[in-house]
Amino acid sequence: MPLLDQIRAEKLINLARSRFDHHITDAELNVSRDSASSIDAAVPKPDALRPEIRPEFARWLATDPEAVPLVDPKGLRFVGVTLAGKLNLMDCSIGVPLVFKTSTLQGGIDLSWTVTRDIGVFDCVLNGAFTAAGIEAHGPVMLRGNQFSSSVGFARARIKNDLDLDNSKLELKNEVALTVDGAEIGGNLFLRGTFTSSGTIRLVGANGTALLAALAIAVATPWVPDRSVLAGPAALAALEGHYHTYNPDGTVDTSWDVVAWPNAAGDGTAWAITIPHVLSLLETHSWSDKVQGLNSFAPQDRPPVLIPFYGFRIMAGAGAVIFLLALWGLWLAVRGKMTAESIVSHKWFLRFTIFCGFLPYIAVWTGWWTREIGRQPWLVYGMMTTAQGTSRMGAAQEIFWMIGYVGFELMVWGGTWYFFAKAVRKGPDMESPVVHGRQPAHGHAETHASFAYAKAE
Questions:
Q1: What is the pLDDT of residue 99?
Q2: CA–CA gap between residue 373 and residue 418 (Å, rounded)
Q3: Cβ neighbours for 326, distance < 8 A, ≥ 6 positions apart
Q4: Considering only 120-124, 143-147, 224-228, 271-275, which range has the smallest mean pLDDT?
Q5: Can you give the pLDDT at residue 435?
Q6: Position 170 pLDDT exceeds 60
Q7: Phi and psi for 133 in degrees, rounded to 5?
Q8: What is the pLDDT of residue 296?
Q9: From edge to edge, which strands make up the β-sheet containing 184-185?
Q10: 156 near 182, Cβ under 8 Å?
């Protein structure tokens, strides 16, 4: 742990002993250290032992005016623990993000009428209700990969960003599992991936510029990619070249960079062609809501910008060109011009089709670069860095597997080109009859069979 983090952790622990309880458990000491640290703690395995902490301690940590300044900006982090009772944060003001990872919340959480920042609950088991009626959240509320055995409620909530329940399971048969009645959601409502609910989902009176559209897309077409969860908000900022959340005059920076180039310092653009309000419309579905800029993240948590920025635009451009080809082909087909006799007269369509043949490969390559470079330095956003996910192999093992991989790929590549060359050397079939116009309804099969038999004789 860095020295500054150690000092903050020691102050936070001493404060807890003097203002909360002198007898702090080992699990509560670990939570204090994790929350004061700028480095995320390793996430334990799902079947690992989860030591208990008192809900009263968690409430004190989140609300004490002297404890909160000692918490790192990443927030209060409860990793691999069990809250032995209900965590009551009703009507509180919480000035730091609240994060639970791979934990058990035996009595659930009450965040009703609470004013808070980001909330993240990841891969947890909640045996009690998650109540957030009237909550005012100034950041995203992410409840991903959790198992809920009681209801989840956001009635009359005001959430400035996304409400995300991806991959969660709501196990309440014949009951109301999720309530978003009367809520105002500034971003998207996500129910994607392996999300399931055995109970009712209520959205009565819920409003937001993107709510209903996002819900329809999430449920009806879960294959639609969403850039805001590509690899976290830093990745989104990188692929948009978005450095500053606010302009120098304090207004929200809503402009979208069509093309841009990073400056030498890496904290902004040297030049850019921008369109006002488009970025906010794309990401928050509003005219002027903020999108978090790269400069709001620590330098070590920012991905490279150049490749994700232009890779995404090349990928989207290739897709647009292919879509244009499809529209052109549809127009010809509707006019009856896609027959073998007619299509040869549309030479520019045929040339354009050949030109588009390589575009899917370009789109796949640049999309992959956008994804993998844009996610850096995270392997799993907010949980595991790429450095933590590297294989623990010796140099000899790495060389062995690299030689094996390259050898296999060369074998596939060589076999493919051998087959192509063989087909090209053989050339096209110039002897079989060419049938013009429509095939006859009867007798054509017999004709071709007789021809083939005569040819064989």
A1: 94
A2: 34
A3: none
A4: 224-228
A5: 65
A6: yes
A7: -65, 130
A8: 82
A9: 115-116, 136-137, 158-159, 184-185
A10: yes
Q: How far apart are CA 257 and CA 270, in angstroms?
A: 12
Which tokens belong to 366?
Answer: 């640049």
Please state the three-class secondary structure of 110-156 as a single string. Answer: ECCCCEECCEEEECCEECCCEECCCCEECCCEEEECCEECCCEECCC
Structure confidence at residue 438 (pLDDT): 53
Among 120, 365, 374, which residue's Cα sits nearest to residue 227? 374
What six digits make up the tokens of 50?
A: 């989860």
pLDDT tens-digit profile of 344-363? 888 999 999 999 988 999 99
Going 333 to 318 to 236 to 376, the CA torsion angle's sign is: positive
Total-model pTM = 0.48
Q: Could you give the CA distance from residue 203 to residue 357 in angstroms, rounded to a whole number? A: 45
Residue 168 backbone phi and psi in degrees, to 5 = -90, 160
163 residue type, one letter: L
Compute the distance between CA of residue 156 and CA of residue 154 in angstroms, rounded to an integer.
6
Two structure tokens written together for 351: 């040339």
| Alpha helix ranges (H) inside 344-428 | 347-355, 359-374, 395-426
Q: Give the largest Cα separation in the chain, rounded.
A: 103
Tell how far CA 63 is from the center of its chain: 31
* CB neighbour list of residue 101: distance below 8 Å, 6 or more residues apart: 43, 77, 78, 79, 80, 120, 122, 123, 124, 383
238: part of which helix (H) or strand (E)?
Answer: helix 233-239
